[in-house]
Design brief:
about 375 residues; alpha/beta; Rossmann fold; two-stranded parallel ribbon; FAR_NAD-bd; NAD(P)-bd_dom_sf; Thioester reductase domain-containing protein
């Protein structure tokens, strides 16, 4: 692990769950550095609450400031004086702001994920003391590709399952254009679940839609959805945080792209069974065609009733294997490994069961 002099960290995506936890990890590990947090106007109140918590309990921390802004605007919507000051002091930029909804409309995804990243790139190039630019992509920039996906690959003529994937791909392409001018680390997480030790998560989206589906049918025999032979790549959030913390501080992470994915993922069918056993106390006993469920989820009334986005099904049938040998090699020096899904899914389900009626954690399905 490389030592760091006092740094000035600039984050987009705060007060989001990942950004908050990465900042918390930096502070926890003895950083007395400064934190400059770009916050969308709609999230200012929550950001103020979270910054108080981060700086609380007498923790060793430098300055922590919130800056109202918007990545979809030129100069990130910052006042020119503020932007100029930050360009002179920021040493590390973490760009996490994005629309992560699989059902996101194209225009919104384009504005936030692509235009937003183009604006962040331009801003980073004006940071005179920049030491690292950490960009959060997704493993699913691979789109509809099958077979083994390498960390060194991006543009392979793939199609995309939704606007989220397409715009995250386009955004990562833009980040690659600045790699020769800024020390850059690109993080591609798999599908993120809650903390492997506590189960904590901020929103019940992604794989939690399957839990919501099982909730609706737990009183009757549970079916498998299709005869998938694909693996599903699920990773707990604490692994993403620990890995990002290490890779963003190590010189080994410069000019690298990392799949933060499970090196030994479970078959989607087995993962579904484990979730059903934990949540409903029983195994699936028959199979319904995936096409039938997809057709039902295409009906807004049914989709709203089960509270499941139909796009979720695609990730239980994706025949892609994410090679993460680069990440494993560079994380091994810190003893960081992805936990086994079967070991932490009980905690994830337990947290879901305790909080499934919390409206703050529920994603509205339209």
């Amino acid at each position: 692990m490389d030592s760091l002099a006092k740094a000035t960290y600039f984050f987009t995506g705060f007060p989001g769950f990942l950004a908050t936890r990465i900042i918390d990890k930096l502070i926890e590990n003895g950083s007395d550095s400064d934190f400059e947090l770009l916050v969308h106007p709609s999230a200012m109140e929550q950001a103020k609450i979270r910054t108080k918590r981060l700086a609380g309990n007498g923790r060793k921390i430098g300055r922590i400031r919130i800056h109202e802004g918007d990545i979809t605007k030129a100069d990130l919507g910052l006042a020119s004086a503020v932007s100029g000051e930050l360009n002179e002091t920021v040493t590390h930029v973490f760009h996490l702001a994005a629309v992560y909804d699989l059902a996101v409309p194209e225009a919104l995804a384009q504005a936030v994920n692509v235009t937003g990243t183009r604006n962040v790139n331009a801003w980073v190039l004006h940071c005179r003391k920049i030491e690292r630019y950490v960009y959060f992509s997704t493993a699913y920039v691979s789109g509809t590709r099958k077979g083994t996906i390498l960390e060194t690959e991006l543009a392979c003529g793939q199609g995309f399952k939704n606007h989220y994937e397409r715009t995250k791909y386009d955004a990562e392409v833009l980040v690659h254009y600045v790699r020769d001018r800024v020390p850059t680390t690109i993080i591609r997480p798999g599908i993120v679940l809650g903390d492997s030790r506590t189960g904590e998560t901020e929103k019940f989206d992604g794989p939690y839609f399957i839990m919501r589906f099982l909730d609706k049918f737990s009183g009757m025999p549970i079916p498998y959805i299709g005869k998938s032979r694909a693996a599903i790549n699920l990773v707990p959030v604490d692994y993403i945080i620990d890995a990002t913390h290490h890779l963003s501080r190590s010189s080994a992470g410069i000019d690298k792209v990392y799949h933060l994915t499970d090196p030994s993922p479970y078959m989607a069918r087995d993962a579904f069974r484990l979730i059903a056993e934990e949540l409903a106390g029983k195994k699936p006993v028959f199979t319904v065609p995936r096409s039938s469920v997809y057709m039902m989820l295409s009906m807004p009334s049914f989709r709203r009733w089960v509270q499941v986005e139909r796009e979720t099904l695609d990730y239980f049938h994706l025949e892609a294997e994410f090679d993460c040998s680069g990440a494993a090699a560079d994380l091994s020096q810190a003893g960081i490994r992805c936990p086994d899904f079967a070991d932490y899914i009980p905690k994830a389900v337990e947290f879901y069961k305790e909080n499934r009626h919390d409206p703050r954690k529920l994603i509205e399905v339209k």
